[in-house]
Design brief:
6-stranded parallel sheet; TIM Barrel; globular; alpha/beta; about 400 residues; two-stranded parallel ribbon; about 35% helix
Length: about 400
């Protein structure tokens, strides 16, 4: 029966019953007025498949969060080289445009994780943080491109110290470390997450109370073949360069390396971005238990959390003091700030955290960008909600945007 579908099985059972009765087997034809369809007539490309749910379920709109929000994970600027070769902090919107969305959605502050390094960091601080000190805290980044220089460890440490003195609120480590940074350009071996050359930098961050927001690895499906079994097959087919299957360390190796770093530097606070491993909350809970200096942040993982709502709710309850709200919002050049950040995006996050709604979209898109599933709300208690939205980030940063 394993090679039959249900219709073939039902047809087979009916045929067997007729044979058993000693009757003649006659092929059943369509009823009068019915047409006989074929596989080719029903063929539909997966990209064109947009099923509409027939479930009658509650739909709650949450236009503003119940409590003020610190969005710990946004990318307001990126480091780019100007025409003259200088490092610049590229931004596609202005602080004033961002503030309109923030005020509409009850976002007290947006943490700009990708403030950059060197002159780019200085520009990001001058344009975003200094004019709006309560709204746009800026993080520095390691200067990865200088890895070929002598005394690289000291260069990294010195740059982070300068960033702290200039006013940076933390350090952001991209997944470049572990997946892209190599010893000798494109030909050398990958630099490991726990490479000891970074130890002085981790220590300086701890000495200046700069939390390290670290993105290590990526969704687990990105490390598997992009085939019919991969739940993110459409996403990876659209973005083949996002695949880390093959000549890359496996996810578990990357995660264990980050865990060793956190244990090696207990006086430095680390934030595992994207919930660290959103598909494996048991492993993340284990890391949190072993590392009191670890927090996690939920940006771009509401789709993963929302499809395991009961486990996710327990995770929020058990780790309520160490989870940060974040969206991974990236300005992308749309005409209005509402489109840029997507007010719908914030409303989906709020709906996930504040309601018990069932089976709703995790992203404002006709085709879900990560995988073809829907999510369920976790309906957090208000005491937990307030911590996740605001209190945990304010405590971590030592900075309260609502404190006049």
């Amino acid at each position: 029966m394993s090679n039959w579908n249900r219709r073939e099985w039902m047809t087979g059972v009916a045929g067997a019953a007729v044979v058993g009765a000693g009757s003649e087997i006659v092929e059943a034809g369509p009823e009068a007025g019915e047409s006989k369809s074929t596989d080719t007539e029903c063929a539909l490309a997966l990209k064109d498949f947009q099923p509409r749910s027939m479930l009658k379920v509650k739909e709650t709109r949450v236009p503003r969060s119940r409590f003020p929000v610190i969005d710990f994970h946004t990318h307001l600027t990126f480091v780019r080289r100007g025409e003259d070769g200088s490092l610049r902090a590229k931004a596609e919107i202005t602080p004033e445009q961002a503030l309109k969305v923030m005020d509409a959605k009850n976002v007290a502050a947006m943490v700009n994780l990708t403030g950059g390094y060197g002159p780019a960091l200085e520009e990001a601080l001058n344009v975003w943080q200094k004019p709006h000190p309560k709204r746009f805290p800026v993080f520095a980044e390691p200067w990865f491109s200088r890895i070929q220089e002598a005394n690289y460890s000291q260069i990294l440490a010195d740059e982070i110290e300068k960033a702290a003195k200039a006013g940076a609120k933390g350090v952001k480590v991209l997944k470049t470390l572990g997946l892209f940074l190599r010893e000798r350009g494109k030909e050398g071996p990958l630099v490991a997450v726990d490479d000891p050359r970074f130890d002085p930098m981790w220590e300086v961050a701890g000495a200046y109370n700069l939390p390290v927001a670290i993105h290590t690895s990526d969704p687990l499906a990105f490390f598997l073949p992009t085939d019919r079994f991969n739940e993110r097959q459409e996403e990876l087919s659209a973005h083949p360069d996002w695949s880390f299957y093959g000549d890359f360390p496996p996810d578990q190796e990357l995660q264990e390396a980050r865990l060793r770093v956190m244990k090696r530097h207990p006086k430095t606070t680390f934030v595992g971005l994207h919930i660290a491993v959103a598909e494996d909350l048991d492993f993340v809970s284990k890391c949190l238990d072993e590392c009191p200096n670890m927090f996690v942040e939920m940006g771009a993982r509401v789709g993963e959390l929302g499809r395991q709502p009961r486990r996710s709710k327990r995770f929020f309850e058990e780790n309520q003091d160490r989870i940060l709200f974040g969206t991974d919002a990236v300005p992308n050049g749309y005409e209005t700030p509402q489109q840029i950040f997507g007010e719908e995006l914030y409303e989906i996050y709020y709906r996930f955290l504040e309601t018990d709604d069932e089976y709703f979209d995790y992203a404002p898109a006709e085709i879900p960008p990560q995988g073809r599933w829907r999510i369920y709300g976790v309906d957090l208690d208000e005491s937990i909600l307030k911590k996740v939205y605001y209190d945990n980030a304010a405590r971590l940063l030592g900075w309260d945007p609502l404190d006049a």
